Amino acid sequence: MKNPYIPHEVKILDTWYEAPGDRCIKTFKVTFTDEKVWDTWSHLPGQCAMVGIPGVGESMFCISSSPTEKGYLRFSIMKAGKNTSALHELEAGDTFFVRGPLGNNFPLEDWKGKNVVTIGGGIGQAPLRPVIQWIRDNRGDYGELQLIYGARTSADHCFKDEFKEILEEGECACHLSIDVEEEEWPHFVGFVPQLLLEVAPSPENTIAVTCGPPIMIKFVLQNLEKLGFTPDQVYTTLENRMKCGIGKCGRCNVGHLYVCKDGPVFSYAQLKEIPEAFA
Amino acid sequence: MVDVNKLREKAKEVVSRDDVRLLIGYRPGTYGFRARPAFVQGPDEADELIFTPACVNNLATYITLEEKLPVPRGQEPDLRKVAVMVKGCDSRALVQQMEEKAYDRDRILVLGIPCTGVVDMAKVEAKFPGVLQRGEIALEGDRFVLSFNGSKEEVPREELVADKCLRCRYPTPLVYDELLDEAVERFADDDYSDIAELEKRAAAEKWAYWEEKFSRCIRCYSCRNVCPMCYCEDCVLDRLQPQWMRRSVDISENTAYHVSRAYHLAGRCIQCGECQRVCPVDIPLMELNRKFYKDVEELYDYEPGTSVENPPLLSTFKVDDREDFIL
Amino acid sequence: MALKKLSKEKMGEVLGELSKFRLVAPAKSDEVVVFKQIGDPQEAFLDYGNSTVPPKKFAFPQTETLFRFMVGSPELKEKNVEEEGTTVIFGLRPCDARAMAIVDKLFSWDFDDPYYLKRRELTTLVGMACVEPPSVNCFCTSLQGSPFGTEGLDMLLTDMGDYYLVQSLTEKGEKLAETLSSQLEEAPAGDEKKAEEMARESEGRIRRSISTAGIPEKLPGLWENELWKRVSAACLGCGICTFLCPTCHCFDIQDEVDEGGEGRRCRMWDSCMFEEYTLHASGHNPRPTRRERTRNRINHKYSYYPNRFGVIACVGCGRCINLCPVNIDILDILDQVVDAQ
User: Fold this and answer.
1) Tens digits of per-residue pLDDT, C203-218?
2) This model's pTM is above 0.85
3) Lower Cβ count inside 10 Å, N or C end of chain B?
């Protein structure tokens, strides 16, 4: 019997900060210490893993790299509790443990031939990053890709270099925002849901994927509806406190769905039926 | 015993007041002789209120238990009073909470019930097993009268009364806005005879005794949650960073849990005995609390929860405090 | 299925024989009956109603190690459940055995839980029929159970007065009967019928009930119903109802490190009634009050679980009713669910 509670050790190849502050965000680029693990590992955009240090604990994070990026996994982690604080102490060459992949994924197979618009806020861009990367690496399979992303300040923007690269490439539309005015900010000022209305992507043959703080998601969903998106065209990811990651320990359920097992990816059509989904 | 009609009339009057949000009292339980807490918000709900010797719960716990959710923007916090029915022992919890400045006196409205003793429900259910239909218990003279399934049974008071009531020094509430009945005299003094034997034992014997009890603990935390003095918003037990106590359930952590709790209650426990009553595995927690209570009384001539004017014992210092027991 | 007879004088011998396994039986500790591993057959207390704490901890320990490690070392040493050896849980009630059969579904859903399943594989359940329903709050018959129910059991014993009627129900049960062959005799003819009659009589003495039909479908529609506020107002937020529930199976996972760096990752029972259970590291809590937590407990048992696994996660043992400090009564709640508009 394969033991789903046993994690694999990973080595940090590189690490850097995405955003500063008390709740700073750090990205870890890692590979399995035992290379043979790669032979049994396969994940898809949207899937998660338990990340932790024996002696400290484990917490669930989305894998923020796409499977098209070979030889490494990425995690972007905000410093919040005991485990994330310990992880933030680690540098390149250090190790931690990963258990997964866990949960479901974005149905990228089903989205082939469609346009995709991603709407992210703050660290909520982390699960959207592998979607974007996957589409960029399988460009021919998908229609137009549009990115909408915002954070409180420009310093709080995650994946700054990549957004810069995408903007420079000019291959897909990329709309950025900050909440309050800053000098020399060339993009939108305001909240992400407003930016969404401003950009007004057409719902025609389009999938919208959103992730961010709950309050942002709430208004993004409203505004997508205004733009004519139907609930089955809209996807998001949920998070809750998790311990086992495999649907046993109980705590992450929203209504009858386990976020760790049935999610984290849900269509708005699914979540609309569940009053607890946005609690 | 308080007249139930008078009680309900008073409750209606109280919950109709503009400055009262809620009244916490008792109502009949779902089966047998049980009674349960009632949360009355309007006069129409007051007709189910009761007070009988089956009303064992200490309702003072609910004053601090309510979750304080953030008030939505544009709304004012509801600052109306909470009215609460208390027996003598329960009132001491209110006194102690207020001594500790847990809330202001004017936040609560206290309906005092002079108490002639409550039953030990375990004793009742052992004597009358399997009573499903709602029954009633009343005290008539020195006997409890139990009415159930159309019949009446009389039992001498001492057979069913809770042990704590036999040594109750304060049967009449010590704090109230209104007293719903005539004050009652104390029944007996507390001579601590119940813990005398335990005190005499050697350390190793005590250790063995408690080890056996604590090994049964399942850490359901009902003793903590029912305790009117355990109202810390952020309990040391729940903390993970730093983690003072492990969540593993074993004799070592269980002991740490109970000993910590007993220490946190030293000079604060008001002897309502709720912790021991609710323990599903019958750990005699009051033996610990009573030992501390006795020591506090002997060392400092102090009884918790007896006067709002008293500063809490462990946050005061007097130059003539005894210190001969300090190692 | 061969019926056997076990005379009461031979009970000591039987327990002695079973002591070659890890033998778990009800035992008295002060006035509390709990299941525990017994060495001396004298310790077993078989004249009991039901145990305060269900025997679930012998399949799902309150605290168990998943693996051990040295801090800083990449080596993780997995706990080997097989070391615990073959276990016989002797004398459990049919409701508690049925509860294990219900929880098995969760622990084998999609991801096999190796600790739980291995332990279940190594465990034989010997039940004791409830000739008399043990509690006024028993309601197993409302949940497809019976005081003589056999679901989940390998062997069922029925107290016939001077002797026990022994019924082997599974391969494991047959094997155990073989082990005990020198203590067992042929059962008197007609006992099977007599036991069936006793079962019917005992079922008739179950006094509380609920019609569960329609509840799983109805619950989701009552999400915002004011009944949740009402039924949870008195809740203290303690773990009695869940820890004493034979089907509750939620757990926490924690790392514990001793001085010297030896550590273990372990799991321990957790309760959806605890505030901390769903508290995010950010401070956000999706179930911020006892209202949401009570609603989740009832929905989990009576809606989510049957939705996913086809069976209500409650066996009607009545423990949560008997021992709730504030008389929150699941049947009272379910009655309100049935009545709610």
Assistant:
1) 999 999 999 999 999 9
2) yes
3) C
